[in-house]
Design a protein that fits this description.
This protein is an all-alpha fold and 51 residues long. The protein has 1 helix and no strands.
Length: 51
């Protein structure tokens, strides 16, 4: 992908915001659907040097 620094920041903020609602389920068990399972989510946005 090709992003400006501002776009990269915006995308990272958007992803963090989207995941935040799911993290709330760990703090508020009543909001967790019965069939949920633990998963890992890994997102890394960084500039590729030399491209």
């Amino acid at each position: 992908m090709r992003l400006t620094p501002a776009e990269m920041t915006e995308l990272a903020t958007s992803i963090r915001g989207r995941l935040a609602g799911y993290r709330e389920r760990d703090r508020h068990l009543a909001t967790r659907p019965a069939d949920t399972m633990a998963v890992a989510a890994v997102t890394r946005l960084f500039p590729l040097l030399g491209r």
